[in-house]
Design goal:
By secondary structure, this protein is α+β, with helices and mostly antiparallel strands. Helix content is 29%, strand content 24%. It is built from 12 helices and 16 strands. The strands form 3 sheets. An 8-stranded mixed sheet has the order 7-10-11-16-15-14-13-12, sandwiched between helices. Strands 2-3-4-6-5 form a 5-stranded mixed beta barrel. β5 and β6 form a beta hairpin. α3 packs across α5 and α3 packs across α6. The chain is elongated, with a radius of gyration of 27 Å. The two termini are 38 Å apart. The mean pLDDT is 96. Bound molecules: 4-amino-1,4-dioxobutan-2-aminium adenosine-5'-monophosphate (4AD) and magnesium ion. The site of 4-amino-1,4-dioxobutan-2-aminium adenosine-5'-monophosphate has 23 residues, from β11, β15, β16 and α12.
């Protein structure tokens, strides 16, 4: 007996009129008075369910089990695949055996009913929410997007480097890091001057969860040429918004012998590749989003694919904002950081296509960005998309040892901690550049699902660590 997934049934016509075995969960069931039950089963392999036609006169456990099964039970069904005339539900299973594998306890109400639940409610049951259509759709698209990113870089001869998750360095210099320590919190060792004695800690010094794998990726770019890292990153920011997570996935690309323009071009080429990939391989799931979440989904993505991206200098962005009639909360002036309302205004100004803003004032950006000749700005770029805002941040890196050291002094960073990073500028330094892409933010842009808490399976945010 062939064990198949529902996806197999929907994609392999050879299975029509064949007997197959399917494992899954019950999404819905209906019993008719004439002794026939219609049981909808899903198995996560695709959006579609398969309807099992279960007849009392064929099934021995009809009265003892089938009439008692409820939504959420796990089952194994055996039957013949039949094609139907229904547009959405093209196949059904003429069932000859159905076994309940796991019952839903009657004493508890099953938290996922067949009605539509709000995102807020689903966030309260993260361990069960992947049983809904919407989270299933997001999970499959997420998987395809992840694969597409790796495929793009593999095809273009980049090496994937697993950079460390535990680190001693604050790459972004913003101080929003989670500490990693094995010290006894009830009996913290102190040194002679009364400060915490991190020499007694696990690593003999302070350690944190990484905010970015960039610095170590740079080390590999400065020998392997073109590399990327893709993993979880952690930020202890007190931002409870639809686009901030405390733990999110970041793709970071680093490439030698390249400048800011090169890295902007690579990031756009990669984005177009992965968007095309998702449109091609996730058609049913994307159609579901079009029908249920976002009527603009295809127009938005196709406009992006077929338009040239606008590149503007930060200085010009400030000028556009200062001429605007819209009221902003802060005074518009050179040196200010762009908030989400500024980003949204600029995107609308350019007719809702993604834009790149580059050459930011150096006071806004991290120490590693290359200082431009004006000594006022750095060779940095942010890529902004409609609704979500910044999804990519990148820069050309400061490859001149002395300028880098000056930046450490300016920003009051302890040079000693970065000695290995300075070495990269000491031994055969090269111009190089890179960028970081927030994976959940890209997913939000592609799917139209507004809150990235609904995109990552188990979100971690301020005061929230369910599961
Ligand atoms: O702009 P960021 O902070 O840049 C860096 O970390 C660089 N080291 C990247 C590099 O050049 N290698 O972060 C990069 C991207 C942002 O554009 C955003 O999409 C995402 O990471 N991001 C977040 N996503 C979810 N939640 C958060 N708290 C995020 N913070 C940044
Ligand atoms: Mg940024």
């Amino acid at each position: 007996m062939r064990i198949v997934s529902i996806h197999n049934v929907y994609t392999n016509e050879n299975l029509i009129n064949k007997e197959v075995k399917i494992f899954g969960w019950i999404r819905n069931r209906r019993h008719s008075k004439s002794g026939v039950s219609f049981i909808d089963i899903y198995d996560g392999s695709c959006l579609q369910i398969i309807q099992c036609i279960v007849k009392k006169n064929i099934i021995s456990n009809y009265n003892s089990e089938i009439l008692k099964i409820s939504i959420g039970c796990s089952v194994c069904v055996i039957g013949k695949v039949i094609s139907t005339l229904d547009k959405y539900q093209k196949y059904e299973l003429q069932t000859n055996t159905i076994k309940v594998i796991g019952w839903v306890e009657k004493a508890h109400q099953y938290p996922i009913s067949s009605k539509k639940h709000t995102y807020e409610y689903l966030r309260s049951v993260p361990h069960l929410r992947s049983r809904t259509h919407i989270i299933g759709v997001i999970t499959r698209i997420r998987n395809n997007l992840f694969h597409a990113i790796h495929k793009f870089f593999y095809n273009n001869n980049y090496y994937w480097i697993p950079t460390p998750i535990i680190t001693s360095l604050d790459t972004e210099g913003s101080g929003s890091m989670f500490r990693v320590s094995t010290l006894d919190m009830n009996n913290i060792p102190k040194n002679k001057i009364g400060k915490i004695d991190f020499k007694k800690d696990f690593f003999g010094q302070e350690a944190f969860l990484t905010v970015s794998g960039q610095l170590t990726a740079e080390a590999y770019a400065c020998s392997m040429g073109k590399v990327y890292t893709f993993g979880p990153t952690f930020r202890a920011e007190n931002s409870n918004t639809t686009r901030h997570l405390s733990e999110f996935w970041m793709l970071e690309v680093e490439q030698s012998f390249s400048n800011l323009e090169d890295i902007i071009n690579i990031s756009i080429k990669m984005l177009k590749y992965v968007v095309k990939f998702v449109l091609k391989y996730c058609k049913t799931d994307m159609d579901f989003l079009y029908n249920n979440i976002d009527k603009n989904i295809f127009k938005r993505l196709e406009t992006f694919l077929f338009s040239d991206m606008v590149h503007i200098n930060y200085e010009d962005a400030i000028e556009i904002l200062s001429y605007s009639k819209k009221h902003f909360n802060n005074e518009i002036k050179f040196g200010m950081d762009l908030s989400i309302e500024h980003e949204k205004y600029l995107i609308e100004h350019f007719c809702n296509i993604p834009i790149v803003i580059k050459n930011y004032p150096k006071n806004l950006k991290a120490f590693y960005m290359r200082v431009n000749d004006d000594n006022k700005t750095v060779a940095a770029m942010d890529l902004l998309v409609p609704k979500v805002g910044e999804i990519i941040g990148g820069s050309q890196r400061e490859d001149r040892k002395n300028v880098l050291k000056e930046r450490f002094l300016e920003l009051d960073l302890n040079i000693k901690n970065y000695s290995w990073y300075i070495d990269l500028r000491r031994y055969g330094s090269v111009p190089h550049s890179g960028f970081g892409l927030g994976f959940e933010r890209l997913m939000s842009y592609i799917t139209g699902v507004k809150n990235i808490k609904d995109i990552i399976p188990f979100p971690r945010t301020v005061r929230n660590i369910l599961c």
